[in-house]
Amino acid sequence: MNVAQTKKEKMNLFEVIAEPNRRKIIDFLRISPRTVNEIVEFSKLSQPGVSKHLKVLREAGLVKSIKESQKHIYHLQGLPLKEIDNWIEPYRKYWSKKLDALEQLLDEEE
């Protein structure tokens, strides 16, 4: 096993979605399933570039491909994003409390 394979195997979900083009693809697929050509057109990336990103997203379980005739249709798989949501939840609560305190302070100043 070479270093590139080891790194790829260890890539976690945070690393996968840290790449802006992959987030853009995820956002696009959130609207509806898409073909590779539709993703290429939307992202303005090359077809090989999109294919590399889709491979990483597939390996992370974020997308799945269904073959229809000659086309591969990519679908978003949202369940792995639950890991991100679980990690963010304590920060969401933290900021909610801070914003509530700010709102109260601003109301008192009026």
Automatic annotation (TrEMBL):
Pfam families: HTH_5
Keyword terms: DNA-binding, Transcription, Transcription regulation
Domain (HTH arsR-type) ranges: 2-96
Keyword Transcription: yes
Annotated SUPFAM superfamilies: Winged helix' DNA-binding domain (SSF46785)
SMART domains on file: HTH_ARSR (SM00418)
Protein name: ArsR/SmtB family transcription factor
